[in-house]
């Protein structure tokens, strides 16, 4: 696993949440924060980092277009770390900015940890270019 601290804490991270997993109040279901992967090496939660998306000309709308039936939620990398999560860049597929999120020592998130993440993630907004 690469060094997790290379990503600035103010970098926005996007998590794609299936629309059927968004509750009536607009918050994601806590089960949307489960690690996924076919092997222990790839068993983590996927996110996309805004800095690299923007560097390569992507927008939140473009990300959502690639993930039909999903909605983008955001959090900062610093907030993920405050929740005790490790974050590192893990390029995968054609969408830039893919990164991985995992608990230390490959621990699985408890239901309470997933609930706290669900309460912290916000519906993503498209920020204007500076």
Task: Kindly describe this structure.
Helix content is 22%, strand content 23%. The chain is of the alpha+beta class. It has one domain (10-123). Strands 4-5-2-1-3-6 form a six-stranded antiparallel sheet. A hairpin with an 8-residue loop joins strand 4 (86-89) and strand 5 (98-102).
Judged by helices, strands and strand pairing, the structural class is: alpha+beta
What shape does the CA trace take? globular
How is the largest sheet built, in terms of strand order? 4-5-2-1-3-6
Overall structural domain count: 1
- The residue ranges in which pLDDT falls below 50 over 5 or more consecutive positions are none
> What is the helix/strand order?
EEHHEHEEHE
As a percent range, the share of strand residues is 15-25%
Helix content: 10-25%
Which sheet architecture does the biggest sheet show?
6 strands, antiparallel
Q: Tally the helices.
A: 4
What's the number of extended β-strand segments? 6
Compute the average pLDDT. Answer: 89
What gap, in angstroms, lies between the N and C termini? Answer: 33 Å
Measured on Cα atoms, how large is the radius of gyration? Answer: 14 Å
Short description:
The chain is of the alpha+beta class and 130 residues long. It contains 4 helices and 6 strands, in the order E-E-H-H-E-H-E-E-H-E.
Short key terms for the protein model shown above:
about 130 residues, alpha+beta, about 20% helix, about 25% strand, globular
Write the layout of secondary structure elements.
Blueprint: E1 12-18, E2 45-49, H1 50-55, H2 60-66, E3 70-76, H3 77-82, E4 86-89, E5 98-102, H4 111-120, E6 122-123
Antiparallel strand pairs: 1-2, 1-3, 2-5, 3-6, 4-5
């Amino acid at each position: 696993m690469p060094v997790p601290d290379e990503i600035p804490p103010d970098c926005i991270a996007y998590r794609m949440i299936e629309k059927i997993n968004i509750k009536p109040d607009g918050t994601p279901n806590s089960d949307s924060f489960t690690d996924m992967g076919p092997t222990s090496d790839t068993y983590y939660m996927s996110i996309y980092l805004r800095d690299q998306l923007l560097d390569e000309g992507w927008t939140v709308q473009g990300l959502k277009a690639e993930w039909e039936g999903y909605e983008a939620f955001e959090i900062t990398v610093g907030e993920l770390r405050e929740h005790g999560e490790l974050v590192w860049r893990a390029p995968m597929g054609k969408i830039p900015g893919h990164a991985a999120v995992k608990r230390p020592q490959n621990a699985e998130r408890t239901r309470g940890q997933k609930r706290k993440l669900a309460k912290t993630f916000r519906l993503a907004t498209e920020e204007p270019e500076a």
